[in-house]
From TrEMBL, chain A:
Keyword set, alphabetical order: 4Fe-4S, Cell inner membrane, Cell membrane, Electron transport, Iron, Iron-sulfur, Membrane, Metal-binding, Repeat, Translocase, Transport
Entry cofactors: [4Fe-4S] cluster
Gene Ontology molecular function, alphabetical: 4 iron, 4 sulfur cluster binding; electron transfer activity; metal ion binding
Positions of [4Fe-4S] cluster 2 binding: C383, C413, C416, C419
Protein name per UniProt: Ion-translocating oxidoreductase complex subunit C
Record-annotated 4Fe-4S ferredoxin-type domain positions: 361-393, 404-433
Organism: Ectothiorhodospira magna
Automatic annotation (TrEMBL), chain B:
Protein name from the UniProt record: Ion-translocating oxidoreductase complex subunit B
Keyword terms: 4Fe-4S, Cell inner membrane, Cell membrane, Electron transport, Iron, Iron-sulfur, Membrane, Metal-binding, Repeat, Translocase, Transport
Residues noted as binding [4Fe-4S] cluster 3 in the record, renumbered to the chain: C141, C161, C164, C167
Compositionally biased residues, Basic and acidic residues: 270-283
Residue ranges occupied by any 4Fe-4S ferredoxin-type domain in the UniProt entry: 152-181, 197-226
Domain 4Fe-4S as annotated: residue spans: 22-81
GO CC field: plasma membrane
Organism from which the protein derives: Ectothiorhodospira magna
Stretches the record annotates as Hydrophobic: 1-16
PROSITE patterns: 4FE4S (PS51656), 4FE4S_FER_1 (PS00198), 4FE4S_FER_2 (PS51379)
């Protein structure tokens, strides 16, 4: 099989091939949108503990100024996305559902919104713990969607040696092309970020995994890299979920992350190209994370494209700016259509982990009624982690959630959605698994 | 083959003797008197562990809330112990926002399960705290004590409810609590939004106006994060006086089997669901 992978490109077993649908946005340069009149910055935009606010009501803040500090190691700093006045710290709607404490800032009208607040650092003089601390200080979290704090990912527990930093430029979700544009337009920042991350984890080499539907990005990266240098580009096949870290490691390094383990257990750390670009741009300048690139696409959008959106911009404002024509029956998804989160309110803000906004039309035209399982086995054939979604689904239907976890490895499921996508009977398998995981988590408490 | 059969039978016969474990025959008798619902309302895992606990004297027969008092008395007579007194606990829902009074902001499609809906951006209800009305509690209740009414709001049958805690565990919005029967005053709302925002989502919301706290005896009710909170350590002071001036009827008094609103509460005559708040996406 080794020589065949030359012909087909590197990849992982199983998975699905959803249509790419990136034509509308991938050739459009990243553009900036106007600043919304009111910004909502949730204290918890990341995995871990919420940040502690540093500002009070009616306080004036400068763009880039820290407005909340990290509460312990499992938290990150937040920075003001705009120059303006703090309206208050209130419970505000978020994409996840429950209202969370958020800092609401009224944007100062007519301000140039230049970043005035920066603490440049000489990166050469920092040792590894100081580097990790500096990364926490710029408030960086994974830009791919999970919003895992980057400093936590880059601090490897004692006893583990990292030999390879894998950089994820796959962007396998349909519609999204933000990472693609970042690789093209911010190539130097990506590479600078990779060098910083390699130093932080102590890796000797880095591989940037890019899907083969982005030849221009591969060419752009290769043009900036030495042929025999420590950083290389690995072309992987366009397949979903190629951008999942475990799948990417499998494709590039032929290593498997064992069940219940993390990539660092096998000497690998994975980061997204968007995260690397932010790291390479912000850390040398000592600025905080105040904006990110978001793909806005889908049939309900007049001006699809990649936009530089300040963190905390309300979704309603963003959609107005890009010409939202969807009806009230539209699905609005934060993230990609496969793993993203559908929102029930337009008042939710764009947070650090939102890689895209996809507006899909009313799906009622299709027949999405659930039918009985016909035991075709398609879900088993596509599950990238090798689970049996069919049996798991049947157990979930009879509420055997503990059995699912103990005997069917439910917790290895990362909700990629391949099984639901392929199921000819329209069984919402991932929804079942999410219910099961949620109830199991509560049972542990 | 026959020899082998005899040999194995012999081993089994010896094993039966040597490995015999004595078990009190009264455990089986007690189990026959118990409902075998294995609901866990008594505090132990099931009916057989409860029978064992009864024999050891850890628990009193009245702890079984599924059995009738007659049956529990039989158990007490058989064991020669007192019946004991245990106040029944009943599940109560801290939400009164059915579809005719609480607005929705998005339509939810997908599995008919509150937990599934709550995982998708909190579900389609306008109020982030409120009951989603998809009936996870109705499905999980082993005693047929919870039914959704015509507005999609669960109604607990206080006679059938055993206080087994299943609905408390299953509700993704944590709206159920177990309350002793004597707690007749309660607040059927968990919305923490400030008054105007809360009223935009629901007509029976607690707006934290503070009238109940002013009317009730000192210290019984306090206002906390835009909600009235009852201090049940002072439950003896509670009376229907607290509910009289509530403008929305969010604080109720249990009269017989059904909760009663105060006379000052706005009357809800609407029967059909409220229209959606604004043209918005479905979940």
């Amino acid at each position: 099989m080794g020589f065949l992978s030359f012909l087909t490109g590197l990849t992982f077993p199983r998975g699905v091939h959803p249509p790419g649908l990136k034509e509308d946005t991938r050739d459009k340069p990243i553009r900036r949108l106007p600043f919304a009149p009111r910004m909502v910055v949730p204290l918890q935009q990341h995995f871990g503990r919420p940040a502690r606010p540093l500002v009070v009501k009616h306080q004036e803040v400068l763009r880039g100024q820290p407005i909340a500090e990290a509460d312990g190691f499992e938290s990150v700093t937040l920075h003001a996305p705009v120059t303006g006045v703090v309206e208050g710290i209130e419970l505000m709607a978020t994409a996840r559902g429950p209202k969370t404490e958020s800092i609401v800032i009224r944007t100062a009208p007519g301000d140039s919104q230049v970043i005035h607040w920066a603490r440049p650092q000489d990166l050469e003089r920092l040792n590894r713990p100081q580097l990790i601390q500096a990364i926490q200080g710029i408030g960086l979290v994974g830009q791919g969607g999970a919003a895992f704090p980057t400093h936590m990912k880059l601090s490897v527990p004692d006893g583990y040696d990292i030999d390879t930093l894998v950089v994820n430029g796959c962007e396998c979700e349909p519609y999204l092309s933000a990472d693609h544009r970042i690789m093209l337009e911010q190539t130097d920042a990506v590479i600078a970020g990779i060098r910083i991350a390699m130093k932080a984890v102590g890796a000797d080499r880095a591989i940037i995994g890019v899907e083969d539907d982005k030849p221009d990005a591969i060419a752009a990266l290769k043009a900036r890299l030495d042929k025999d240098g420590p950083i290389s580009v690995g072309q992987v096949r366009s397949k979903y979920p190629q951008g999942s870290e475990k799948m990417l490691i499998k494709a590039l390094l032929k290593r498997e992350v064992p069940s219940g383990h993390f990539p660092y257990h096998i000497g690998v750390v994975v980061n997204n190209v968007g995260t690397m670009a932010q790291l390479g741009t912000l850390l040398p300048r000592g600025e905080g994370l105040v904006e990110r690139v978001v793909t806005v696409a889908g049939p309900g959008i007049t001006r699809p494209g990649n936009y530089r959106v300040p963190i905390g911009t309300p979704l309603r404002y963003l959609l107005q700016q890009v010409g939202f024509t969807g009806s009230d029956a539209s699905h609005i998804i934060l993230g990609g259509p496969m793993m993203g989160n559908t929102v029930s309110s337009l008042d939710v803000p764009i947070t650090k982990g939102v890689s895209g906004v996809v507006v899909l039309p009313d799906p009622e035209a299709e027949d999405t009624r659930m039918q009985p399982c016909i035991r075709c086995g398609h879900c088993v054939e596509v599950c990238p982690v090798g689970l049996n979604p069919s049996d798991l689904g049947k157990l979930a239907a009879v509420r055997q959630y503990e059995v699912m976890e103990e005997r069917y490895h439910l917790n290895d499921c990362f909700e990629c959605g391949c099984c639901s996508y392929i199921c000819p009977s329209n069984i919402p398998l991932v929804q079942y698994f999410r219910i099961a995981k949620s109830l199991n988590r509560e049972r542990l408490k | 083959m026959a020899g082998l059969g005899v040999l194995l039978a012999g081993i089994l016969a010896i094993a039966n003797r040597r490995l015999y474990v004595y078990e009190d025959p009264r455990i089986d008798q007690l189990e026959d008197l118990l409902p075998r619902a294995n609901c866990g309302a008594c505090g132990v895992a099931g009916c057989r562990p409860f029978a064992e606990a009864l024999l050891e004297g850890h628990l009193e027969p009245a702890r079984c809330t599924v059995n009738s008092t007659d049956m529990n008395q039989q158990i007490a007579d058989m064991l020669g112990v007192a019946l004991g007194s245990h106040e029944r606990q009943i599940a109560r829902l801290a939400c009164a926002g059915g579809s005719h009074v609480a607005a929705t902001r998005a339509r939810y499609q997908g599995l008919k399960s509150c937990r599934a809906a709550a995982l998708v951006s909190g579900g389609g209800k306008g109020c982030t705290w409120g009951c989603l009305g998809l009936g996870d509690c109705e499905v999980v209740c082993d005693f047929d004590a919870i039914h959704l009414d015509r507005y999609g709001l669960p109604v607990v049958d206080p006679v059938r409810c055993t206080g087994c805690n299943d609905c408390v565990d299953v509700c993704p919005k944590n709206l159920f609590t177990l309350q002793p029967e004597s707690h007749r005053l309660w607040v059927a709302c968990l919305n923490q939004d400030p008054q105007d925002e809360a009223m935009a989502h629901c007509q029976v919301v607690c707006t934290a106006c503070g009238r109940c706290a002013a009317d009730a005896p000192e210290g019984l009710i306090r206002m906390e994060s835009n909600l009235a909170v009852i201090d049940y350590t002072k439950n003896a002071l509670a009376s229907p006086v607290a509910i009289q001036r509530c403008p929305t009827g969010a604080i109720v008094w249990l009269e017989g089997q059904a909760p009663r609103k105060g006379s000052g509460a706005r009357k809800v005559t609407r029967k059909e669901p409220l229209p959606r708040m604004e043209p918005l996406p479905r979940v």
